[in-house]
Amino acid sequence: MDLNVPAPEHLAHMIEGIKSKLRVATAASIKAEHFSLDHYADIKDLYDLVMGKERFSISEIEALCDELKHLKG
């Protein structure tokens, strides 16, 4: 899977990966269909950041979730 190529299935993969890695209580409310391919590059950057880090502080998780909320729509 080449995540550098914008596609709905790649977007869904990245959103699920972010949710899984962050293990947030609100994960059920985060769905791939809430995100547009218009924000693909931003979501890819967020995905790369999340996947590249082993642990997150509570404030980092909150900031990442806020960024996801910003990218919805």
Helix content: 55-70%
In whole angstroms, the N-to-C terminal distance is 24 Å
Shape: globular
Largest sheet: number of strands, sense, barrel closure: none
Structural class, from secondary structure content? mainly alpha
Strand-residue proportion: under 5%
Mean pLDDT: 90
Order of helices and strands: HHH
Radius of gyration: 11 Å
Structure description:
InterPro entries: UPF0435. It comes from Paenibacillus thermoaerophilus. This is DUF1128 domain-containing protein. Pfam families: DUF1128. The chain is mostly helical and 73 residues long. It has one domain (8-71). It contains 3 helices and no strands. The model has no long low-confidence stretch (mean pLDDT 90).
Write the layout of secondary structure elements.
Layout: H1 8-22, H2 40-51, H3 58-71
Protein name: DUF1128 domain-containing protein
InterPro entries: UPF0435
Keywords:
mainly alpha; 73 residues; 56% helix; DUF1128 domain-containing protein; 3 helices
Task: Give the structure's gist in a few sentences.
With 73 residues, this protein is mostly helical.
